[in-house]
Structures are given as structure tokens and as C-alpha cells.
Amino acid sequence: MTPSIDLSKPGKRHGFLPLIHSDNRHAHAVIPIPITVICGGAGPTTLVTAGVHGDEFAGILAARQLIADLSPASLVGRVIVMPMLNLPACRAETRVSPLDGANLNRVFGVGAPAGPTAAIAEAVVAIILPEVDFVLDLHSGGTTARYLPSAFLYDQPGASLAKKRAAARAFAIPFTLVVTPPPDAGSLLGAAERQGIPAIACEVSGGATLDRHAVAATRAGMLGVLHHLGHCPAPQGDAARGADTRFVRLAFGAAHAVVAPFSGGVLPLHDPGDIIAAGQPAAHLYPMEDQSQPASVLTFPKTGLITSVTARPNVRAGDLIFLTGTLEP
Ligand SMILES: [Zn+2]
């Protein structure tokens, strides 16, 4: 998959990565994965991605705005923007690809079975990542959850951890989720870090809505990071933004989550950002098709900070209702 544009010449160019896929809708068609390069003078290269999940709209639109924001005349180095990386999922407004049901953020560099989603990941790993010095991957919660507006980073020790934490501070959103990645994480962050490239993400908004405050926070965060990396001057009004972020240790698993014990209608009692205590009521869960049974009161297993809440009115047994984290001292 060769980009339709030159990624190295000075200037701003818009093109695509040609994804070839043949099915009932696409016979010999190309699915053009958008890519824009803004190339100024000598300097580092940063990759900005959005639309890894097609139902996370704030990041997609913020990346679109960034393309207009950046001018090669005032840019140091190069910024590559891929605002709808999983274009088939973006077109369908779904988390995973409608072409093969794959989650793009699980197939980067892990030898996933061949298919259109793996082909996008392979092109990024083989063609784009070797060109870049830093990755910023924009997420926006998606259909299933509302997130604490936050930056997100992996905590592997090493030189890049300090760079990632500094970049998260420059994103200047109130919280940053710090996660220990699974081995061979198939996420874009995992693939970048295996190539020695520091990478952070963000999770802003959720519930598959397009919220203007989330778009604005994502756009301002990106410009703050690009300034921090030396690409551009401080964004206007930057002095009024938060000067720092609080780091929140997030672990997946039952000890840090409220999980639906049965299928039902759910009424969460708290929002992302709330501080909660172990044993405190978290949500009421109603067995909707058995009117004789009262609602169950679900409780938090651990004291902490709510990082996400389900955006669904009805959950199934095993679904996450809340994820919680622990503020770093
Ligand atoms: Zn996502």
C-alpha cells in the first residue's frame, strides 16, 4: 500500500493510502484511507491518528480541524495526519470494521489474520511508523462508554516514559490514564513503542455523540503537544488552559470495575471524575423482563476515581458498567 502523495517534500498535501478490498460493495475499488502531510522546515515528525474506532467522532473532527490549523510556512518538521484511519468503520460509524469485524486497535504488528483491517495496520507499521518520532492517537470513548476526558499512556519503564508523561502534561487535560499494557499489545501505541517511538493517546467524550467541548479539548490538547514537541508556537489562549494533568493508574479487571452480574436496564449513580469509596452504591440494575424482581444495587469494589461509565441503557451479563482508577499521589 503506497501513499498517493509524497510524504517528504515541503508543503501541505492531501492524499490516501489505497486499501484494496473486494466484496459485494467493492469489486475492484480502492478504499482511500485519508492521509495529509504538513511539511515545514527540518525537524521531527509526529503522526496524529483518529478514527481507529469509527464511532469516536470528537477525535476525528479535531484531526480534521488540525489539518486546517497547521501551515507548512510556520511548522518546524513534519506532521502526518490520518483522521479516519479505519475509514470503513468511520463510514459505518462503528467501532470495528464492517468489512471483517476486526478491531483495528488489536491488530497492529501482532501477526493478525489477513484482511482489510489488518492491511491498514500493516501499512501503518511498515510504511508510516518508520518515518515518525512521536505518535498521538485520538480516541473519543465510542458507543459503549463515556470517558473521563483524559490523555492515555502505557507505563513501560524506559526513556520514553518521561517523554510520554511530559507530552501528556502538554496535552493539559485534567487527567491522564496510566496503563500497564498487555504483552504484544495490538494497539497503535504498542506497535509504535515496539519501534522505539513514544506514543500517547486520549479518550475524550463518548456515547457516540459529537460534543463540541470534546472537540475543542482534543484540538487544544493536540496543539499543546505539537508545541511541546517543537513543531509550532504555543496555541493562542494557551495561558488560560490547565497547566498540568493528574495521573490516574488504571488497571483492567474485576477488582477495578463494576460488571453487570445479569442482563438488565442500568441506572448509573455516578459520572466520570467522581471520587468513590469501596462498598458505595454504584448503579441500580433492573431485570427488565421480570417485573416481580426488584432492582439490584451494585457497589464499587474499590476506592478510587471513576474513569468511564457505560453509555448503554441496557447491559448484558459481563458488560462493564464502571471502570475506576487510582490517583497517583
Ligand atoms: Zn477508541
Radius of gyration: 20 Å
User: CATH superfamily assignment of the largest domain?
Assistant: Zn peptidases
Ligands (ions, cofactors included): zinc ion
Low-confidence stretches: none
| Structural class estimated from helices and strands | alpha+beta
CATH topology of the largest domain, by name, is Aminopeptidase
Could you explain the architecture of this structure?
Strands 1, 2, 3, 4, 5, 6, 7, 8, 9, 10, 11, 13, 16 and 18 form a 14-stranded mixed sheet that branches. A four-stranded antiparallel sheet has the order 15-14-12-17, with no helix packed on it. The chain is an alpha+beta fold. 21% of the residues lie in helices and 31% in strands. The chain folds into two domains: 240 residues, Aminopeptidase (3-Layer(aba) Sandwich), CATH 3.40.630.10; 70 residues, RNA polymerase II/Efflux pump adaptor protein, barrel-sandwich hybrid domain (OB fold (Dihydrolipoamide Acetyltransferase, E2P), Beta Barrel), CATH 2.40.50.100. It starts with 10 loop residues before the first strand and ends with a strand. The chain is globular, with a radius of gyration of 20 Å. The longest helix is centred in the last third of the chain and has 17 residues. Helix 1 packs across helix 6 and helix 4 packs across helix 6. Bound molecules: zinc ion. The site of zinc ion has 5 residues, from loops.
